[in-house]
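seq/struct pair 1
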Amino acid sequence: MRLTSVNMTTPLFTALSFLAVLALGSCLALLPEEQPYVERAGIQYSARPYTSLLTVPNGEQFGNWTWPEMCPDKFFAVGFMVRVESEQYGLDDTALNGIRLICAKDEDRSFLYTIESHTGFFGDWSDPQYCPRGVLTSFQLRVEPHQGLFGDDTAANNVRFRCSSNPTLAGAGLDYGEYSLWSQDCGDGGICGIETKMEEYQYGLDDSSLNDVRFHCCAKLQQ
């Protein structure tokens, strides 16, 4: 039996090779993008020293300040998510229920920590937003003022952050109330911690959930 060799320059072989390359490219395109490793920091780094607190004057009156949570040493907030209850159309609205900071070391976004302090029970977490470069350095809080004895209080509705590289990032919150002026800036460092003022669940009465927030600044020069 005589074996026939294949001519590598034939149009058929060229076409088959082209189709094989296309198929390989399609398979690679379907592979998922590598996701960063994310770990919840909680209170384990709450003893980290900080240089200042960022506050705004328009936070509401209900609830109490809870516990601080801090990024690990040499990590700074580079992005955030918000927990928001959508418009309830005549039922009890709570709007912004939580803010989750995402911490990274330098410009490495492959290993991240999250911190959030105490959060409310209502709504869903948004997709994360990140500074294109740098870290979060200041913020604004959108707050609806107290609506009176028979009104529906929502208190905090949304948050905006400014990055050290200058872009402004706005949360996916609701539109009740007005934004405060910008807080002070972290200067040479960046935001490294969060503490929230929360009204606990009111068991069928008017819930306002998140009322105020303050952020810790850490100096990069100390690292």
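seq/struct pair 2
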Amino acid sequence: MAFTNSSSASSPLEKTSLASLDQKLVMAKRYAHEGVKAGARAAVVAGIAAAIPTVASARMLPWARAHLNHAAQALIISTVAGAAYFIVADKTILATARKNSFKQA
């Protein structure tokens, strides 16, 4: 016996499950986009918040002036910004998905 795709694709159960999967995919993309926007905002704020004391200390403190070159300062700032991005994006995606899953239930 050969199974054909046309008979299984025409069943009402499969049509609703495909529609449900499409809806879930659209929702997941929206959650991810919201997370990216929130993460980018957090990265900008954290980068500025880390840059000011890093650059100031590298100019004023003798130890920092001797040991923190431009590459080290950039590494400190970018690490803080990257960490803020991933933490906030992840929390935003999970919080949005959790909030909307309770709405659907």
